[in-house]
């Protein structure tokens, strides 16, 4: 019997190690509402079927174009509609991006993510980003970009340049979504995810907790993610960083255990995906970060900045890894089956 055939039963719920995409909303709700320690046990069990429980995948994120975004995502300091005082800049020169990627690799990152504050790139805006993807790939890092909505044909061009991952978060539930963003729809986002998948690029897709959504919304978000077929390979779970000047600057802080519960449920629902502890980590104690990792998170952003918000220092992360006996997950072996389009 392979690990993926294994199954455990907790309070009548069958929890398997094999990824499945036919979860019902009721099943997700029942899982989410288990007593926390039962849920943590299930998450640890599932995690160990697919991953080294002491290894964490490390990505570095660079904002290659910052601010002046026409969208109105209520949590984001980069929207042109909010007065947040961030430093904006146009697309970075290629040389600076290459140097940042080289530094990230030397520090131990295996994936380099590049974010640009577009509604979605126009074709002429995509050109220099394709060059960045090629350069970062040539350094020996996995590549990821987050550029907003993609038009027809753009995902294929990114795939040809060697892009490994495209990040496009759903952010929250479909029902709560219009309270957070009005300039693009939930369906628009799903369409971009479909284009990315159809082009053969891996999907990085998750959400943000603490936007004022209810538990039902969190359950619904997880249900949508866990029924994408196949699951996103990376699932970032962010906790809102309340930025002065954004409409959510005074949002109520989400209970830490609710955050841990969401991570654990994501781990059980998407057993073979990397679940990433993303924005919000600077507001977590080291004990809280350890609890998130115990709940099945096995990826994090490594580096002192996350687009425009702070992230723990690499020295703090190194010290935490040492105290917990964690190691960085090594770079995956190159998938030669994709090399025809990836180089
Ligand atoms: S989250 Fe992205 S799309 Fe939304 S305002 Fe910020 S940069 Fe623009």
Provide structural commentary.
The chain is an alpha/beta fold and 343 residues long. The chain has eleven helices and 14 strands. The chain has helices at 25-32, 36-50, 94-107, 123-139, 154-161, 186-198, 215-226, 256-269, 286-294, 314-324, 339-342, and strands spanning 7-10, 13-16, 55-65, 111-116, 142-146, 165-167, 202-204, 207-209, 234-239, 274-277, 299-301, 305-306, 309-310, 327-328. The longest helix has 17 residues, at 123-139. It is globular. Iron/sulfur cluster binds next to loops.
Q: Kindly name the structural category.
A: alpha/beta
- Total strand count, please? 14
Q: How would you sum up the global shape?
A: globular
Tell me the major beta sheet: 10 strands, parallel
CATH class: Alpha Beta
Q: Distance N terminus to C terminus?
A: 37 Å
The fold-level CATH name is: TIM Barrel
Low-confidence stretches: 333-343
* Individual helix count: 11
- CATH architecture level-2 label: Alpha-Beta Barrel
Rg from alpha-carbon coordinates = 19 Å
Strand content: 15-25%
User: What is the succession of H and E elements?
Assistant: EEHHEHEHEHEHEEHEHEHEEEHEH
What small-molecule ligands were found?
Answer: iron/sulfur cluster
CATH homologous superfamily identity? Aldolase class I
**Helix content estimate:** 25-40%
Q: How many structural units, i.e. domains?
A: 1
Mean pLDDT: 91
């Amino acid at each position: 019997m392979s690990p993926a055939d294994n199954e455990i039963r907790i309070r009548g719920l069958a929890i398997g190690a094999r990824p499945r995409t036919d979860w019902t909303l009721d099943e997700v709700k029942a899982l989410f509402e288990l007593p926390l320690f039962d849920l943590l046990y299930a998450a640890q069990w599932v995690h160990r079927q697919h991953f080294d429980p002491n290894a964490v995948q490390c990505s570095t994120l660079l904002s290659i174009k910052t601010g002046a975004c026409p969208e109105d995502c209520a949590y984001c300091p980069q929207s042109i509609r909010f007065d947040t005082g961030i430093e904006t800049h146009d697309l970075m020169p290629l040389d600076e991006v290459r140097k940042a990627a080289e530094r990230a690799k030397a520090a131990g990152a295996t994936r380099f993510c590049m974010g640009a504050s577009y509604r979605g790139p126009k074709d002429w805006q995509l050109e220099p980003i394709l060059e960045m993807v090629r350069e970062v790939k040539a350094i020996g890092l996995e590549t990821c970009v987050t550029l907003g909505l993609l038009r027809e044909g753009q995902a294929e061009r990114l795939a040809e340049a060697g892009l490994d991952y495209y990040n496009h978060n759903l952010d929250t539930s479909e029902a709560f979504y219009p309270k957070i963003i009005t300039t693009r729809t939930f369906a628009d986002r799903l369409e971009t995810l479909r284009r990315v998948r159809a082009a053969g690029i891996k999907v990085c897709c998750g959400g943000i907790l603490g936007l004022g959504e209810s538990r039902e919304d969190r359950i619904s978000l997880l249900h949508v993610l866990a029924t994408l077929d196949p699951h996103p390979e990376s699932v970032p779970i962010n906790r809102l960083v309340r930025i002065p000047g954004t409409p959510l600057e005074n949002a109520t802080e989400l209970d830490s255990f609710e955050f841990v519960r969401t991570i654990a449920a994501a781990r059980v629902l998407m057993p073979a995906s990397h679940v990433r502890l993303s924005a919000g980590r600077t507001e977590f104690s080291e004990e809280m970060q350890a609890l998130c990792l115990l709940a099945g998170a096995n990826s994090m952003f490594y580096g002192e900045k996350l687009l425009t918000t702070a992230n723990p220092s690499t020295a703090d992360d190194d010290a935490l890894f040492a105290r917990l006996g964690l190691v960085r997950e090594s770079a995956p072996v190159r998938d030669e089956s994709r090399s025809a389009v990836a180089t």
